Amino acid sequence: MLVCLMASAIYAQDTLRIMTINVHQGSDTTLQAIGEFVKMYHPDLVALQELDMWPQRAEAPKQKGKNFIAELSYYTDMMGYFGKAWDHPGGWTYGNGILSKYPVDKVENFILPQDKSKGEIEPRQIIIAHINIHGKKVCFASTHLCYKYKENRMKQMKHIHKLMRKQPENIKIVCGDFNAYLSENLVSKGMKQWHDVLPMVYTFPSDGNAYFKFDYILVPNKSDIQVLNTSLECDPKITDHCACIAEIVVP
Questions:
Q1: How many distinct structural domains can be found in the chain?
Q2: Does residue 103 lie within any of the structural domains?
Q3: What is the overall mean pLDDT for the chain?
Q4: Does 37 map to a domain?
Q5: In terms of residue numbers, what domain contains 97?
Q6: How does pLDDT run across 149-207, given as a tens digit for each residue?
Q7: Left (φ > 0), alpha (ψ -120 to 50) or beta: where does 234 sit?
Q8: How far apart are CA 5 and CA 8, in angstroms?
């Protein structure tokens, strides 16, 4: 009887594998290689940063004219969604994205605040997907914050915190490249009601000599989400950031 009850409890929950990965504008390899790398770890939800739509980047000649989210969706066999941050001065569109194995009810895109007087010309953005997982509602977000100025990073985190508080789902996950140095202690301040499910390990660069912690998988402090395990998968032939993976149980 005890075994049956335990089995029923497990059945009533869902185990999800979450990944976040900054693909470095595809500068290091092909989109097929990135897609195959992602697919190798069998994620259910993926937060992607630094995606282009039809770029002409000299530093990424293999991606000329490519639709990143469409190709990554194809190579991973997942549904892909793109959130525009801005129209790049070079003549293409740039932003972040989400891949999902599960049906997505709605996708929202929000431009984040920043003090333009600081000289940061690149707008920052968050894409939020509302996902149906076996009848459970999950709010999953991907973002990439200001690189140059910590004041902007703090503004953007506080705005994300407010945005996510408004979302109706009980299960909420925010992933991405926060560009925040550990010495700044910004994530714990700007996202003070959230915690990182990853151990405090460095995620950048991916060449085996990482010395920055930029990438996060955040869940609310009061969440019933359980973390089963986490890992970093680092391959400089794919991208300059380590891919961060967390296997979680959602009630």
A1: 1
A2: yes
A3: 93
A4: yes
A5: 15-250
A6: 999 999 999 999 999 999 999 999 999 999 999 999 999 999 999 999 998 899 999 99
A7: beta
A8: 5
Q: Is 199 a member of any domain?
A: yes
- Residue among 241, 220, 242, 246 at smallest CA distance from 231: 246
CATH code for the domain of 35: 3.60.10.10
Contact 52, 27 (CB under 8 A): no
Structure-token pair, residue 61:
């000649």
Q: What is the pLDDT of residue 197?
A: 96
- By the 8 A CB rule, do 232 and 201 touch? yes
What is the pairing mode between strands 79-87 and 93-100?
A: antiparallel
pTM summary value? 0.94
**Nearest-angstrom CA–CA distance, 230 and 251:** 18
Phi, psi angles (nearest 5°) of residue 52? -115, 155
pLDDT at residue 112, rounded to an integer = 97
Is the preceding omega at residue 205 within 30 degrees of 0, hence cis?
A: yes
Is 88 contained in some domain?
A: yes
In DSSP terms, 104 is beta-bridged to 131
- State both tokens at 35: 């897609």
